[in-house]
Design a protein that fits this description.
Blueprint (H helix, E strand, L loop, with lengths): L6 E3 L3 E2 H8 L2 E2 L8 E2 L1 E2 L9 E4 L6 H6 L4 E4 L12 E4 L3 H12 E3 L14 E2 L4 E2 L4 E2 L4 E2 L4 E2 L4 E2 L4 E2 L4 E2 L4 E2 L2 E3 L4 E2 L4 E2 L6 E2 L6 E2 L6 E3 L4 E2 L4 E2 L7 E3 L4 E2 L4 E2 L4 E2 L4 E2 L4 E2 L4 E2 L4 E2 L4 E2 L4 E2 L4 E2 L4 E2 L8 E3 L4 E2 H22 L1
Parallel strand pairs: 5-6, 6-7, 7-8, 10-13, 11-14, 12-15, 13-16, 14-17, 15-18, 16-19, 17-20, 18-21, 19-24, 20-25, 21-26, 24-27, 25-28, 26-29, 27-30, 28-31, 29-32, 30-33, 31-34, 32-35, 33-36, 34-37, 35-38, 37-39
Antiparallel strand pairs: 1-9, 2-4, 3-8, 22-23, 39-40
């Protein structure tokens, strides 16, 4: 179930209602009255949950799922295990996205409520700048300072002795002690998730959270997206420069350093003590081992082992990159000399 501090349940829907909503076909009409309350991934859904099969590479997960129902394409309808009802759709992920939006809704600050909601809780010595908005159920720890125009969303928990800069936006997040969020940074907005549909790409509801552990620094105008379902997390004492993007479901270790314009794509796992040079980029679903160094402007498309330094496009071990760069330089000079 998505964290109820950040998402509200919109009530149960029968399989018949889900099929009608999404245009799917039920594999077993006799089970049309079964009620679904949660939209979840294959590995997290229970008997009251609906999931989806994104493609053949996830068939192992489908076989092990405990979901009560699953959106699948016609060619995978026969692969749905006993006890799980198939919702057959040409675009299973887009159908699931529609179902998820019908089952769950992000909590919002009521438009008619005061800027500082009466249900928000504050410890002693909290400082609020002009124009601050604090949503219902938010909790702010002792000695924390919140700058002018900052927005703290419903249910957000911010620890003690934090410094939240002007016009910072924090939502769907749990923030530790001594965290510094510089001006204009955004924590917890929806990650970039889309699914194909007959009418073009559709947004996939992002039902996860952001966890910022103690001592994290997030630079001005940087963004950390909330997870699609699992959490996006930034480990203790990691320091993130200005204009950095950390995408949904990323797990960033402790004591990491990310220089400006770095981009970490979704579902990347980064070990402790990793350093990223400016404008480094990492493709999705990769692992960067503890103590690794990623050079400036490097484009990472493969897993990086622990304690190695990689750079270049595509990124590779730095010694290999230096040899190749030197060879290309010598070859270019030879050709240039021959043409004179």
């Amino acid at each position: 179930m998505p964290d109820p501090r950040f998402f509200e349940s919109k009530g149960a829907l029968s399989l018949e209602a889900l099929a009608k909503l999404t245009g799917a076909t039920l594999s077993d009409p006799a089970k049309a009255s079964i009620e679904i309350t949660v939209a979840a991934p294959l590995g997290r859904a229970g008997a009251d949950g609906v999931s989806f099969l994104a493609g053949g590479k996830h068939l192992t997960g489908l076989a092990a799922t405990r979901a009560g129902a699953c959106f699948v394409s016609p060619r995978h309808a026969a692969d749905v295990p006993a006890g799980c009802v198939a919702l057959i759709a040409d675009y299973p992920q887009a159908a699931w996205a529609k179902a998820a939006a019908a089952l769950h809704a992000p909590r919002r600050h009521p438009a008619a409520a005061p800027a500082i909601h009466p249900d928000a809780a504050f410890e002693e010595d909290v400082e609020l700048g002009p124009g601050v908005v604090v949503g219902p159920g938010a909790q702010i720890g002792r000695g924390t300072r919140i700058g002018a125009g900052a927005v703290i969303g419903p249910g957000v928990a911010i620890g003690r002795d934090c410094d939240i800069g002007p016009r910072v936006v924090v939502g769907f997040a749990l923030v530790g002690d001594r965290v510094r969020l510089h001006a204009g940074s955004v924590v917890g907005e929806a990650g970039f998730g889309t699914a194909a549909s007959p009418k073009g790409p559709v947004d996939i509801p992002q039902l996860g959270r952001v966890i910022l552990q103690d001592g994290v620094t997030l630079g001005a105008n940087s963004c950390v997206d909330r997870g699609a379902w699992e959490d996006t997390s930034v480990g203790e004492n990691s320091k993130i420069d200005n204009l950095v993007h950390v995408a949904h479901n990323v797990s960033l270790g402790r004591n990491c350093l990310l220089a400006a314009y770095t981009g970490i794509s979704g579902s990347v796992t980064v070990g402790d003590g990793v350093m990223f040079g400016g404008k480094a980029g990492v493709a999705d679903h990769l692992n960067v081992g503890a103590g690794a160094v990623v050079g400036a402007s490097a484009s990472v498309f493969k897993n990086i082992p622990a304690a190695e330094t990689w750079t270049g496009f595509p990124a590779r071990p730095i010694k290999r990159w230096m040899r190749e760069t030197a060879w290309v330089s010598r070859a270019a000079n030879r050709r240039g000399g021959e043409g004179e």
